[in-house]
Amino acid sequence: MNHVYGWLLLLPAAVFLLAFTHYPTVATLMQSFFSESTALRPSVFVGLENYELLAEDEIFWKVLNNNLWYAAGTIPTSIAIAILMAIWVNRRLPGRGLVRMAYFTPTILPMIAVANIWLFFYTPEIGLFDQIGAVFGMPSQNWLGDPDLVLGSLIVMTIWKEAGFFMIFYLAALQSLPPELEEAAHLEGAGRWYFFWRVTFPLLMPTTLFVMINAVINSFKMVDHLFILTKGGPDNASSLLLYYIFEVAFSFFDESYAATLTVVLLVLLAVIAVGQFVLMDKRIHYR
Q1: Which region holds residue 137: left if phi is over 0, alpha if psi is between -120 and 50, else beta?
Q2: Is the pLDDT of residue 211 over 90?
């Protein structure tokens, strides 16, 4: 009876998991092997033809390169800043609650609101950054219209929004560490940096793995900000993989090729996730 009761409790979650995760994944994989159907021509099995087209798609490779640079720019920087902020707000400082709230505020803002705020920051001549630069005699920059600057501008905005979110996990992890460890280190004459690198950081590795997986997923799912800020331009210089998938599916109406791109994205994320577990497994110390 208890066995049946347990399965009944799991049934609602299992139904939603199958309906909204497993079935769409399998359906997307199957659709990537078929051509796009039209009113005059039904969909037919084409095998790996969509993947061959993807391999020859210059825009795909450019977008993938953008996404890899975007991930490389946002993930380590966001994590490093999150750790520093967590260590800072974990101390006994005046107005600690207000400081924590200030760090976390960007996380709770709607994505569209964040994009509009930074659109004001990046607007040439009248934007906040150009106004500050003008005080120091710096020329105006077209932050979102220059192919050399636009991706870096998106990276800065993402770090600002995500670092506070990751900080919460590190703060919780720091507060769970036994205070006796720091007291013993002080008695032994260990400095703060040595204690952090040899004791605190290794004990934070489970949290770091969790945060890294979330950071990787976030770096490959950015769409909302691109709608407001750049729409992938100029000349696809800021287009990222998920935005390109959306564009192919809903602007070009090629659902089969969009399914092919989605399969590549899922495989890429799976490989990265497995790689993170393999590379970090020996460095993780569970308490």
Answers
A1: left
A2: yes
> What are the residues whose beta carbons fall under 8 Å from the beta carbon of 167, sequence distance 6 or more?
82, 85, 86, 89, 103, 104
Backbone φ and ψ for 40, nearest 5 degrees, come out as -105, -15
- Entry pTM: 0.90
Scanning the structure block, which residue is given the tokens 């139904």? Answer: 15
- Retrieve residue 272's tokens: 């990265």
- Asked whether the beta carbons of 185 and 195 are under 8 A apart, the reply is yes
| DSSP secondary structure letters along 169-211 | HHHHHHHTS-HHHHHHHHHTT--HHHHIIIIIHHHTHHHHHHH
**Distance between CA atoms of residues 6 and 104, nearest Å:** 38
- Residue 91: pLDDT band (50, 70, 90) is confident
Output helix, strand, coil percentages for the chain, rounded to the nearest 5.
75, 0, 25
For residue range 101-130, list pLDDT tens digits in order: 888 888 888 888 888 999 999 999 888 899
DSSP reduced 3-state for 45: strand
C-alpha–C-alpha distance, residues 119 and 153, integer Å: 10
> Which letter does DSSP use for residue 281 in this model?
G
CA nearest neighbour of 123 among 228, 219, 36: 228
Contact between 215 and 74 (Cβ < 8 Å): yes
Tokens standing for residue 119 = 């659109």
Residue ranges and CATH numbers for the domains of the chain are: 49-283 (1.10.3720.10)
CB contact set of 221 (below 8 Å; sequence gap of 6+): 242
Close Cβ partners of 224 (under 8 Å, ≥ 6 residues apart): 111, 112, 115
